[in-house]
Amino acid sequence: MRSSNSLSKIKAENAKISFSYIPVAVFVGGTSGIGRGIAEAFARHTKGNAHIIIVGRNRAAAESIIASFPQPTSPTAKHEFIECDVSLLKNVRQVTSEILNKHAKLNFLVLSAGALDHNRTRLTEDGIDPVTALSYHSRWKLIYDLAPALEKARNDNEDAKVLSVLSAGNGGKIDLSDLELKKASLMTWIQSLMTYNDIMMDFSWRGTDSFRFEFCVPLDANMGLPCQLHPSLLSSYDTGKLWGVPTVRDSLYCWRIGKHGNDIEKQGYYGDDTSRDALWKHTMEVTDSK
Ligand SMILES: NC(=O)c1ccc[n+]([C@@H]2O[C@H](COP(=O)([O-])OP(=O)(O)OC[C@H]3O[C@@H](n4cnc5c(N)ncnc54)[C@H](OP(=O)(O)O)[C@@H]3O)[C@@H](O)[C@H]2O)c1
């Protein structure tokens, strides 16, 4: 259970975060909620000396968040907004190439864009409902397209991490004959998206497995998110200490963090080799990835 003791420990650990380089961090969903909390805390703990890119639709919100960041002292640090509706895969392609054109390396990719809408009848031009697209396909595509920049950071011995905020541990069995989730009931649809996220974060990414993923469910988000909790997730070293997880894991690239900040390991995990292969193939086709 999270306690005031763990919160104060987390705050203390956050205060120690420092980088020997200017980190590059992308926050997709950083204009609001959890993503905003993480972005602001990241800016605060780096004292603004980071290249921070917020991706979303709400320019006014982004500009006000960026204006609140500490002014960097490093001339290479920069804070910017890229306006993008990431529920459309063509827009994701555009935003990832814009980021790759500017940045050979990426240290942190924080994915929290989402929406609460149970109406699955409205489909995007990709033929996917927006919630499914935001919770899974666009996140998958962002990771897939930006993997070379994460790899570059890892090869340079820098942090290279992806955090996907959804609902670890609350998934369910998936139906391999309905990976498009066209026939799924409301509950099966929601739980399948969580399992898709689990599998996405645990893919080992076929040849790009040199970086580690971290995965988090909102921590008491409905009670007012304590944003101080999140920047700790951006450092494997601090995360390891904070959550009691070993800092270095040789064979496991995905941490699943539950709502109390604990490592939930494979609890509520419904992936296996068969579903991983089927989902990978399906997603490559839907996202038109090569
Ligand atoms: N809060 C909770 O209790 C809770 C519980 C379980 C799961 N979750 C999941 O955790 C994630 C984060 O939740 P939250 O509470 O931080 O959500 P939130 O406050 O509603 O923020 C959602 C973010 O997603 C972005 N977004 C939505 N549609 C987008 C689009 N089409 N293109 C680009 N960006 C888009 C929004 O940015 P713009 O408006 O700028 O586009 C915003 O920054 C979501 O996936 C949510 O479903 C949350």
From TrEMBL:
The keyword Oxidoreductase applies. InterPro entries: NAD(P)-bd_dom_sf (IPR036291), SDR_fam (IPR002347), Sec_Metab_Biosynth_Oxidored (IPR052228). Gene3D superfamilies: NAD(P)-binding Rossmann-like Domain. Signal peptide: none annotated. Keywords: Oxidoreductase. GO terms for molecular function: oxidoreductase activity. This is NAD(P)-binding protein. It comes from Lentinula guzmanii.
